[in-house]
Amino acid sequence: MNFVKRIVLSCLLVLCLLSSLLAQRPFLEGVISYKADTITQAEPGGPPLFPTQTIVYKKGNALRIEIWRVNKFDSTDIMKDIYIRNDKGAYLYTESTKPINRMLDSIALFMTHEEEKQLLAEQALQGMEFYTVDRVLQKTTWLNLPAEKVALKGGSNQTLPEAVITRAIDITLGTLFNSVSKLPGTPLQFMLDERGWKIQLTATSLTAKALSDTLFRLDAKRKPMSMSQMGGELSDFK
Fold first, then answer.
1. Could you give the CA distance from residue 173 to residue 189 in angstroms, rounded to a whole number?
2. Other CB atoms closer than 10 Å to residue 63's CB: what's the count?
3. CA 143, CA 30: separation in Å to the nearest integer?
């Protein structure tokens, strides 16, 4: 009987070790989905296109982030702000089911990695407010990741918001959500300001799976342009 107990205990120990190792495996490839909820309204009406979800695709160091917006008066009117980051640099563009400017449908803003860093630095110099961690409120687990609920300081609000972050993965959201660019790790729940409306983004699923390389490449129909080139093209467009 003692021999059987030792076998059972050994098996349980192995299972615990395997579970621990699997939990510590880095998230190298897959999808994180966020839902968007309106917390406070600045004024009646508000912008017609409201964020409904954000989807983050990760493959190694490559990223693709999509911010989905839906017209509250017309559910077929959908716009996506898309950010792609690969070994060449970063691309920003918009896709829409009902484009209002066909020029925007054929171009994408391109920045080298160095230009992207410079942009964030310039925003700081221009007085853009960034949140930083003031203190840890609670240790928690979110989507099977070790996480922390934190109180934030800084930002443009007098009331300090809270956020949930994980240091287990490191995904940069700062180019699209400037206020969280100084937070460590990856924010799993945080607030953003949409024309005075407070929107909360909450990570609802994390799925490790193989992704196609095409997700992290700019569509061939789009022409990459620098910020100055894009400004010139749009000013000349009739």
1. 12
2. 20
3. 13
Q: For residues 201 and 188, is the Cβ–Cβ distance under 8 A? A: no
Assigned token pair, 87: 């070994």
In the chain, the amino acid numbered 23 is: A
Would you give the end-to-end CA distance of the chain in angstroms? 87
Q: Which residues pair with 68 in a beta bridge?
A: 53, 80
Q: How far apart are CA 231 and CA 11, in angstroms?
A: 64
Output the six-digit token pair for 48: 């017609």
Query: Mind listing the pLDDT tens digit for each residue in 124-183?
Result: 667 667 788 999 999 999 999 999 999 998 866 555 689 999 999 988 888 888 878 889
Which sequence spans correspond to the domains of the chain? 25-236
Cα–Cα distances (Å) from 235 to 103, 111, 221, 226, 232, in that order, read 11, 20, 21, 14, 5
Which pTM does this prediction carry?
A: 0.82
Class of domain 25-236: mainly beta
